[in-house]
Amino acid sequence: xxxxxxxxxxxxxxxxxxxxxxxxxxxxxxxxxxxxxxxxxxxxxxxxxxxxxxxxxxxxxxxxxxxxxxxxxxxxxxxxxxxxxxxxxxxxxxxxxxxxxxxxxxxxxxxxxxxxxxxxxxxxxxxxxxxxxxxxxxxxxxxxxxxxxxxxxxxxx
Length: 157
Known about the structure:
The protein is an alpha+beta fold. It has helices at about 5-20, 45-50, 60-75; strands at about 35-45, 55-60, 80-85, 90-95, 100-110, 115-130, 135-145. Strands 1, 2, 3, 4, 5, 6 and 7 form a seven-stranded mixed β-sheet that branches. The chain starts with 6 loop residues before the first helix and ends in a 13-residue tail after the last strand. The mean pLDDT is about 95.
């Protein structure tokens, strides 16, 4: 087992991922992924049925960075803060040196001067590869349990 993909490394990765998004450091978000990685957000109903329809599907750094540009420069919405809570990953190692992991997540949203609310709940289904900088995502599928997404999905989950 590669120490770059051990339990502690994956859990630290998820903690850094959450901290990055919670701090609004969206320019750093693509750096959590390999250059040709896939990021998808899909409803549990579709995922469980094997249906390909996603709310969002981004392939590679170019599309991830385009999403960041949209967040920072083209989207207009009432401001709010996010807080990601990510559970301990259930990790499985593969003979090719990669690892898959599944971790539950909850994202809370707070509007300035308002109350906090549960925004999205689900699980990450991940495929990791070891790099000299540590684990990187080859794929992150965010499978959300919520039947509806409040308002719109602006920030990454």
